[in-house]
């Protein structure tokens, strides 16, 4: 399955977004705080039913 269009409304710092996605690779480019991570989290939430920010206490490097 692939996404061809993503509509986001009132999600994190994104008020409204309508993204047309191409087959293959799509790149998110923008300044800090512009919503790149919010777009990724919206896609993740779509597939998993919860945001990956819920795992903020998870560490990549265990002690």
TrEMBL record:
<dbReference type="GO" id="GO:0006302">
    <property type="term" value="P:double-strand break repair"/>
</dbReference>
<dbReference type="Pfam" id="PF02463">
    <property type="entry name" value="SMC_N"/>
</dbReference>
<dbReference type="GO" id="GO:0000731">
    <property type="term" value="P:DNA synthesis involved in DNA repair"/>
</dbReference>
<dbReference type="InterPro" id="IPR027417">
    <property type="entry name" value="P-loop_NTPase"/>
</dbReference>
<feature type="domain" description="RecF/RecN/SMC N-terminal">
    <location>
        <begin position="3"/>
        <end position="52"/>
    </location>
</feature>
<protein>
    <submittedName>
        <fullName>Recombination protein F</fullName>
    </submittedName>
</protein>
<dbReference type="InterPro" id="IPR003395">
    <property type="entry name" value="RecF/RecN/SMC_N"/>
</dbReference>
């Amino acid at each position: 399955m692939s996404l061809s269009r993503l509509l986001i409304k009132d999600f994190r710092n994104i008020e409204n977004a309508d993204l047309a996605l191409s087959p293959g690779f799509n790149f998110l480019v923008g300044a800090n705080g512009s919503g790149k991570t919010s777009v990724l989290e919206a896609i993740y939430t779509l597939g998993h039913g919860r945001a990956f920010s819920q795992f903020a206490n998870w560490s990549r490097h265990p002690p």
